[in-house]
Amino acid sequence: SSNPSVVTVDDTGLILAMNPGVSTITTRTDNGVSTSYLLHVYYQYQAYLQDEFEENESFSTANIITQNGTTLNGSLRSNQDIDIYKVYLFKGDSISVFLSPEDVEHVPFYFVGFVDQNQQLLSMSLELNTYHILTSSVPANGYYYLFIMALPNAPFEEPSIYESFIYWE
User: Fold this and answer.
1) DSSP codes of every residue in the chain
2) Which end of the chain is more exposed for a tag (fewer CB within 10 A), N or C?
């Protein structure tokens, strides 16, 4: 890296963005051929952790998310539990949610939804092998809600632990 304060490269070739800025990365093959790439880092990630707390089963008692890039740690206590989170977003934002249950066998029994202030469903999650992903554009300034719930046929005998990463841009 031409600028290690912006981008570092380890011995295996893993590139890690450190701070906003510009850096040139040069790769070389064993026979001496090299190529350079100019990398622009626009966003500095900062981790925010937030534990889900009860009661958050209704829109009026939703846990509030204030930080972009929040990782939520939560649990669904049964197949009738729902966790609701409230976030203020701006028109034109795009929100993304990644949810991973601790037990990958529980993935098919989770559902993540994104609704507006009128509780109109704007987007729902897509189940991938070991996690769920939800993306949605934001149509207007205001409060929006994310809900994480178990499907009625979920075989949860003990609380199902999950981690969910939420960011918008």
Assistant:
1) ---TTTEEE-TT--EEE-SSEEEEEEEE-TTS-EEEEEEEE------EEEE--S--SSGGGPEEE-STTEEEEEEE-STT-EEEEEEEE-TT-EEEEEEEESSGGGGGGEEEEEE-TT--EEEE-EE-SS-EEEEEE--SSEEEEEEEEE-TT---SSPEEEEEEEEE-
2) C
